[in-house]
Amino acid sequence: MKTIRLFEIIGTICCFICIVSWKFVSRDNTTKFVLLENTSTSVSETFTNSDINENEVMDGWLKESITEQAVACKLGFSEIKGKEEYWEATGTYIQIWEFPALGIHLEMESDSPGGNKKVRSVTMIEPCKFATSKGIRIGSEEKEVREKYMKSINDAYSDKNNIVVGSIYGGTIFTLTDGLVSKIFTGAAVE
Predict the structure, then answer these.
(1) What are the sequence ranges of the domains in the chain?
(2) CA distance 44 to 26
(3) Which SS3 state, helix, strand or coil, does residue 125 take?
């Protein structure tokens, strides 16, 4: 009886260790589990990048993962739509939607050709008037970007022409020209 109880305790401890060593990941509403090699660093880094992307909303509504129906309701139908392409890195189909008159470029993602799409990334350029959740827009000064995003700037990926908030794997990139924001990108710049 004592031996069985000892195995129950050991089994429970092993299960607990396994659970804290795995992290739930859901980018496209599918369930995945990823083993964390360095749990403390990976978890804090992942939450930081995820929180940054989840909280970054353009003009109070435009962000990653909203549906094509929401985009159509707010912006109308895309003036220019690219061809759907399969991306092996993501296992999804990507189509570019451009709204040149608004200065908005969207990467739309679906699980199958012609399937329901959602926003994968957002790029804003002149003449876009949308602002980020912290009020940064095309034409904002570099100083203002640095002040408002101070705690989230990733110096390892930033340089004199780009301020990276979060990371290039999921975050916001402010491109600078002559000290002013000339482009705002949010999403995964690389896979």
Answers:
(1) 2-35, 57-187
(2) 16
(3) strand
Can you name the residues that pair with 95 across neighbouring β-strands?
A: 108
The more confident residue out of 23 and 75 is 75
Please tell me the distance from the alpha carbon of residue 42 to that of residue 162, in angstroms, as a whole number. 24
Backbone angles phi, psi at 87, to 5 degrees: -105, 110
Instruction: Kindly state the DSSP code that residue 121 receives in the 8-state scheme.
Output: E
Q: By CB neighbour count within 10 A (0-12 exposed, 13-18 middle, 19+ buried), where does 170 fall?
A: buried
pLDDT digits (tens, 9 = 90+) for 109-120: 999 999 999 999
pTM greater than 0.85: no
Cβ-Cβ contacts under 8 Å for 157 (sequence gap 6 or more):
164, 167, 168
**Which amino acid, one-letter code, is at 178?**
D
